[in-house]
């Protein structure tokens, strides 16, 4: 017998009534054999058919309620700006509320169909829905990964390439003023142009949901052009020499620890600690080539035979980073301190005619920065930031002599950075960065690209 069932509140009521009738009509088999009639058997068959039909309708309504609820949740999340329209499956859904009905009979409960499997764009269980609700939009996750404040990835392999341009001119006066107006002596213009290409291999390992360990191993190619005016005593003559250098840079091992998660009133706060090993070529003890001497055998122009790739000393750093999401903006900042340890070298003098062993203590540095990023869509975000590093003067001493500060070794390096992140795939992201130097000690500009790949 075929009947047409209607979806709505009456379906649940009919199910409860039929279940009650089915329970009431059940009698022990012995009694049924004694009192059964053809009319009773026909009624039982009819009720059984009605019960099976209502169970099928009930299961269909539960599936439909689940789908409608998830679609509503996805639309609400998109309107709130939490997830993009392209990936509704990433939106968390609330647990589907079951219709208020009387409990079905045991037979009906056992025969009810299980919830449908997860479909494209929908979470199939409450656990999946809760996990999806906590999942960050991709563009936000990429920004946090760039600031090393992302802790939901097990392993990330990153390849990066950065180009730095540095150009500095200096006017040198060697003489004295006569009559407070006429300069008597040598005037020389010194110019140093440096180009550095830095390939950096990095690995990020998420040890726990609150701790990430990092390894950064750079490889550098450097070319420096030295120019000096007044060669040979002629003011118009310019001498020029070029030197290069390449090799492994200083390797850094660091860790990030999530101290405070983000909530409505405070940003996410991360502790950063790291140590840098002097694995690169130090700038001390490199042979120098003399290009010009004056009549008194004084060296007027000399250049190193090769360029260094490291600073030659161990360094330790500690800092704090903070990130606050304020849709559609992401605010972030950091502050930290780097301590340089003393190091001993066989020759700390750049005079090619002498060898003077001694100790060097590079200046400690204090750094800070702040920026803002905007998530344009699920794949793309744009950021602007300012970073600044203040370095104290370095000190050095020859064996058996007191410490002396190196004049001109202190620095104030400030950069204005523009960055773009773009999701290439579910696992890979491309990060582009342009840095513009704001102080004489900073590079003229930097251009970099990084491709982190999460496994």
Automatic annotation (TrEMBL):
Show which residues constitute the signal peptide: 1-34
Provide the protein name. Answer: Transporter
**Swiss-Prot/TrEMBL keywords:** Coiled coil, Signal
Fetch the SUPFAM superfamilies from UniProt: Porins (SSF56935)
Coiled-coil ranges per UniProt: 44-78
